[in-house]
Amino acid sequence: MLRSPIFGESYAQNFVEWQEVEWLDVETDYIEPLSFGDEESSAKTEPMVENTDRPAAFTYDLRVYPNPSSGGTITFTWDPQEFIQASEFHLSINDMAGRRLMDQKVKVLNLGMENLDVSFLVPGTYILQLSTDDGFHQSETLIIQ
Questions:
Q1: Where is the Secretion system C-terminal sorting domain (predicted)?
Q2: According to DSSP H, which parts of the chain are helical?
């Protein structure tokens, strides 16, 4: 059972002297009372719901092949349904030190596929990143042999 301390009103008024300390059971949202002297209290809380436009595990279903690659051309695909409102996205390749080696805009078409020339990359590990102006992005590791 996970528990988290919640300090009562006395704590907010006086940091040195705690008169009321409660523990919140984060699995059931019930605040369990702890008594000090004659004082005792408890409360029931409601869980907080955070509304977002996209799920936390949002992905573009980005795929890169062949991977590992021997250089030349790679193909990357994405789910075009994820880009219904976007007209383009940014594609970048970074090395493992974070240096941006390539950055280009890709027009979103219903095909969901683009070929990319990576012949300029030396053998190593790279990060291929797809991002939109909305702030969503997904990364894939690209290995050049």
A1: 64-144
A2: 9-13
**Second CATH level (architecture) for the domain 63-144:** Sandwich (2.60)
Find all residues with CB under 8 Å of 51, minimum gap 6, and list them: none
pLDDT in tens, 96-125: 999 999 998 887 665 778 888 999 999 999
pTM value is 0.56
Residue 43 host element (H or E): strand 43-44
Instruction: Please tell me the distance from the alpha carbon of residue 85 to that of residue 127, in angstroms, as a whole number.
Output: 25
Q: What SS3 class is residue 58?
A: coil
Q: Could you state, in order of their start, the residue ranges of all structural domains in the chain? A: 3-44, 63-144
d(CA 3, CA 32): 10
Cα dihedral sign, 118-89-83-96 = positive
